[in-house]
Task: inverse folding
């Protein structure tokens, strides 16, 4: 694997990535010759992750953000498209290359109650990646486990505990230590703090920020919490029903969101500030079923700025400003 | 004048061979036309208060002291029959998981109509009319068809709307909402919270006890708030005052630990240590081991909740 | 000393958690100890005949009486447990090993592997157990080993099915996905992450099937297809006692009660484990 990366080349890049899940159709439907239904969880997503930065992927449930995260790690096969890690398509990698990729790309999972094997002691959980790649001797691995526990704010006594003996925040630290064990380049964090109490969430976010600084980590943060996004990320991609509708540097996006969905989303967040009231009336209706997304722009039935051609033309993600891309006919060439 | 009045409520759980206090000496009044927030981290006792008021505590829990008054009815010694009459009429509750309130075996229409017939003594056609009206009010499109649907055919947001429709159907004076939007997306959350305020508080003048861990929700929809820590109220008052000028060190730390808009990067302030468990509550002020301003006296004396100049009540010796 | 105290504490916890499991385990452990050490404390050999006292009722010398050859019934019951437990342990052990492997593979890989493994299991399961065992012992022979194998063959699909079911649940757990993302091999995922978390329902099943194996062994010996005379088997003793029911009812009562006791022990344990390992309970 080439170690000389062009500064401009992204560390991780998704190109035209799609994932469709076929739905089990009934025997009767198949006999009638009905076409098998699919859920388009992720549709034609392209994005770049720059080394050393944090990209946040934001969306509500059903937006496909978690599926996208799993595709970026080859935890599932895409329907079409590719993911390039340092220029190599991860779906074309052979065993040896894939194993090298897995060392460098790690995941932190959402629910610290479900993401740790209940029958393994904490020490074994953190040591497992080292065992898999046979790093050094067992004694060296154990020393590394102690160092990692220390690094995430636990201590070596915790190595002997089972996950059930720890609090939610402590468990998430164990998950972080396990992800760090192999000194990865990039960590994909799927809602890493959403099931934690606010004070514990703050501790965890601070830890993740410190680790990024110390190890020059690249993060992909999958979340629905815009407070976390603004605090933490360099760039943000907003997803709605499988598609990216807007992507921009964090400051730009929060200063002036362009896509109507982004605007609605931002306006619906309950800010912890009674003097800045939410606009209650903006979001209309429920998100449609991903099984049967509306034609044209998926957001048009709920969009406050809907135009006549929104139901027929699916807008493409196009640059509206340097570094900012929006998929909306309001900003398309020729629109007035 | 208060709709719901808690007087020194203490609730205990039986665990490991003894009774442990989950809620200690909590008193407050819920007024007509207000949303009162009950906020705190997990394990602070906020949901236990809700279940104590509803008298829906699990078998290993009991109210060991104090009283809860719904108007002139003392809920703490009301009979099960009397409670059954009150629940769903004068006193309603919605839960984090709306499915708790819905029976998966019956259509949504059946359940809404049944509630209406039972509590309002409406005849079937009138109940059906009223049910349709309610479904439209809570923003369910194609209400006529939706009456015939089963709960599993609804999304989380839709189910919560139905649960809300059932809860408001008999014009309750008091609604207890236990994390009603925690499982929902933000855009749906905004809609549901808005509905609660408009339908219950503004149109009916009811009082809502909103239990949440989300300070954003409190800031946006509550009029007054009680901040709870380890089973006790540590600060109580108007939302505006408390968010502008939090007095209790725990409230301050909680607000500062939020990653919020406007504060980018930089370490978030956090509270050292963690919430003590039920069987390991510190003496004196329960927050003192984690408090940056702790004094020697904090370890010995539990400060009472007292009114301060700013108008809010706070339980902390710093303000004595 | 502290070790002992810790052990006692553990036992008390188990007792508090499930009296049924505790009682079942106690019965089984006591029976196993008594039968394992029987030669140390019983003065008789199982086939030693006391010609002076055939069909003797319970006396000081023969606590449970003697049979038509004057053999001590208590001694024979205790030795009989050796065969019962050996058949139960052997068949469940073998069935467990093969069935769990099949079920784990089928549940983990799914698709074609699942079909290749599970369809023959379904066929095997469709045969009535006793017919299968009778056929096997009838054709192959009447050794204990054959009996063990025959019961095991009946058990393999049962274990495979239970294991497959619980594997299907565990395979979707987040920690399995996490381990996969770290590069864990199929083998590691199956052995380290899925097996330990999916085995509980299989162990409950195993305990109940142990009891049934004891019944099966007795039934086979009773109809003459299992243990052969003069070896002491509980089923065989029942069969032999049948002709003397009028004169010496203790000849059937003793092995009958003995069989029931062992089956009861395993069933209590199985039921208790079900309570203990029930995930709803664990979450509290």
Result:
């Amino acid at each position: 694997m080439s170690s000389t990366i062009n500064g401009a080349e992204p560390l991780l890049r998704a190109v035209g990535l799609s994932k469709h899940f076929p739905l089990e159709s009934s025997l009767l439907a198949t006999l009638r010759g009905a076409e098998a239904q699919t859920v388009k969880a992720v549709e034609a997503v392209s994005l770049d992750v720059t080394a050393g930065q944090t990209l946040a992927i934001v969306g509500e449930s059903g937006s496909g953000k978690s599926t996208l995260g799993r595709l970026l790690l080859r935890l599932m096969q895409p329907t079409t498209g590719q993911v390039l890690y340092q220029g190599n398509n991860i779906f074309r990698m052979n065993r040896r290359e894939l194993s090298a990729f897995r060392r460098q790309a790690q995941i932190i999972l959402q629910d610290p109650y479900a993401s740790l094997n209940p029958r393994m002691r904490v020490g074994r959980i953190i040591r497992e990646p080292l065992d898999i790649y046979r790093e050094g001797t067992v004694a060296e691995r154990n020393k590394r486990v102690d160092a990692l526990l220390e690094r995430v704010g636990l201590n070596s006594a915790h190595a002997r505990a089972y996950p059930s003996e720890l609090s939610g925040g402590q468990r998430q630290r164990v998950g972080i230590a396990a992800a760090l064990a192999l000194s990865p380049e990039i960590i994909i964090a799927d809602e890493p703090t959403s099931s934690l109490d606010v004070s514990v969430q703050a501790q965890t976010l601070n830890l993740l920020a410190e680790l990024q600084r110390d190890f020059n980590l690249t993060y992909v943060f999958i979340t629905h919490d815009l407070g976390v996004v603004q605090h933490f990320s360099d760039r943000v991609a907003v997803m709605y029903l499988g598609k990216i509708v807007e992507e921009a540097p964090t400051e730009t996006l929060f200063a002036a969101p362009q896509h109507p969905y982004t605007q609605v989303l931002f306006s619906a967040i309950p800010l912890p500030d009674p003097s800045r009231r939410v606009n209650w009336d903006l979001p209309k209706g429920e998100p449609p079923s991903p099984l049967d997304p509306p034609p044209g722009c998926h957001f048009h039935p709920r969009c406050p700025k809907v135009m006549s051609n929104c139901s027929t033309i699916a807008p493409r993600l196009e640059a509206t400003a340097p570094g900012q891309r929006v998929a909306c006919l309001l900003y398309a060439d020729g629109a007035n | 004048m208060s709709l719901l009045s808690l007087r020194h409520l203490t609730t205990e759980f039986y665990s490991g061979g003894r009774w442990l206090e989950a809620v200690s000496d909590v008193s407050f009044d819920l007024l007509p036309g207000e949303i009162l927030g009950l906020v705190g981290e997990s394990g602070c006792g906020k949901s236990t208060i809700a279940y104590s008021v509803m008298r829906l505590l699990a078998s290993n829990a009991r109210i060991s002291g104090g009283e809860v008054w719904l108007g002139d009815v003392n809920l703490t010694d009301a009979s099960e029959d009397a409670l059954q009459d009150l629940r769903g009429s004068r006193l309603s509750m919605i839960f984090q998981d709306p499915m708790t309130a819905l029976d998966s075996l019956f259509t949504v229409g059946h359940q809404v109509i049944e509630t209406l017939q039972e509590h309002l003594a409406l005849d079937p056609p009138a109940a059906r009319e009223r049910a349709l009206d309610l479904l439209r009010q809570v923003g369910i499109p194609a209400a006529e068809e939706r009456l015939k649907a089963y709960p599993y055919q609804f999304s989380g947001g839709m189910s919560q709307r139905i649960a809300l429709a059932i809860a408001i159907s008999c014009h309750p004076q008091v609604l207890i909402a236990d994390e009603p939007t925690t499982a929902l997306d933000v855009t749906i959350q905004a809609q549901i919270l808005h509905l609660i305020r408009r339908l219950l508080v503004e149109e009916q003048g009811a009082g809502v006890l909103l239990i949440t861990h989300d300070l954003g929700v409190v800031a946006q929809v509550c009029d007054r708030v009680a901040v709870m820590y380890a089973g006790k109220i540590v600060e109580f008052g108007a939302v505006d005052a408390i968010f502008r000028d939090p007095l209790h060190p725990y409230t301050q730390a909680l607000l500062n630990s939020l990653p919020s808009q406007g504060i980018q990067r930089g370490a978030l302030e956090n509270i050292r240590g963690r919430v003590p468990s039920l069987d390991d509550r510190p003496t004196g002020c329960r927050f003192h081991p984690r408090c940056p301003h702790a004094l020697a006296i904090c370890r010995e004396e539990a400060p009472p909740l007292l009114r301060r100049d700013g108008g809010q009540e706070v339980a902390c010796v710093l303000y004595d | 000393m502290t070790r002992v105290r810790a052990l006692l504490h553990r036992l008390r916890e188990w007792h508090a958690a499930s009296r049924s499991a505790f009682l079942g385990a106690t019965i089984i452990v006591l029976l196993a100890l008594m039968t394992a050490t029987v030669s140390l404390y019983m003065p008789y050999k199982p086939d030693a005949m006391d010609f002076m006292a055939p069909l003797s009722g319970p006396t000081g010398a023969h606590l449970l009486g003697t049979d038509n050859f004057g053999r001590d019934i208590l001694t024979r019951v205790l030795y009989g447990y050796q065969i019962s437990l050996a058949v139960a342990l052997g068949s469940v052990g073998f069935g467990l090993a093969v069935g769990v492997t099949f079920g784990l593979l089928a549940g983990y890989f799914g698709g074609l592997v699942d079909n290749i493994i599970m369809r023959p299991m379904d066929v095997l399961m469709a045969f009535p157990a006793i017919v299968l065992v009778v056929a096997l012992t009838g054709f192959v022979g009447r050794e204990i080993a054959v009996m063990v194998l025959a019961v095991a063959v009946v058990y393999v699909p049962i274990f495979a099915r239970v294991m497959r079911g619980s594997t299907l649940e565990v395979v979707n757990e987040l920690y399995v996905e996490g381990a996969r993302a770290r590069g864990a091999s199929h083998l590691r995922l199956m052995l380290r992450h899925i097996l330990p978390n999916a085995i509980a329902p299989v162990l409950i099943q195993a305990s109940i099937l142990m009891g049934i194996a004891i019944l099966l062994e007795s039934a086979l010996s009773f109809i003459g297809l299992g243990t052969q005379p003069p070896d002491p088997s509980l089923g065989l003793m029942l069969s032999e006692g049948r002709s003397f029911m009028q004169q010496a009812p203790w000849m059937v009562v003793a092995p009958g009660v003995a069989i029931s006791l062992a089956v009861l022990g395993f069933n209590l344990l199985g039921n208790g484990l079900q309570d203990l390992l029930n995930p709803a309970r664990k979450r509290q």
